[in-house]
Specification:
Layout: H1 11-20, E1 22-26, E2 29-33, E3 44-49, H2 57-77, E4 88-93, H3 102-115
Parallel strand pairs: 3-4
Antiparallel strand pairs: 1-2, 2-4
């Protein structure tokens, strides 16, 4: 599980990150990046899969778990690159990412973070 200090939970924080409009898309997953950091704070990450993506919550939650675990493993290994310069990151899962295995989701997230 992603430690509490790295989770994006606040509705206002999600809205502020979306407002920046700094986004990248690959393989059914979209990454929104917030403002750049001015002080030393941890980068917070949020994971979203809309009900429009799939009507079954089991499928939506599985994609969220895969994205969260991929990010956690990259955080643990220190392969996040320039993404640690931002205050917040939001990963939005789409229809194309629903049936993908863990390795593929992890590769997509790694490539998205490399684009920042």
């Amino acid at each position: 599980m992603l430690p509490k200090q790295f989770r994006l939970k606040n509705k206002a924080a999600f809205a502020a990150t979306y407002r920046i409009k700094n986004s990248f898309h690959k393989g059914g997953i979209t990454l929104f990046a917030g403002k750049k950091k001015k002080e030393e704070l941890p980068t917070r990450a949020g994971f979203v899969v809309s009900k429009k993506t799939h009507k079954r919550s089991v499928k939506r939650n599985r994609l969220k778990r895969l994205m969260r675990e991929s990010y956690r493993l990259l955080l643990k290994s220190g392969e996040l690159g320039n993404s640690q310069q931002y205050l917040s990151l939001i990963f939005v899962g789409g229809e194309n990412a629903l049936g993908k295995p863990m390795k593929e989701v992890q590769n997509i997230i790694k490539q998205l973070l490399g684009r920042l």
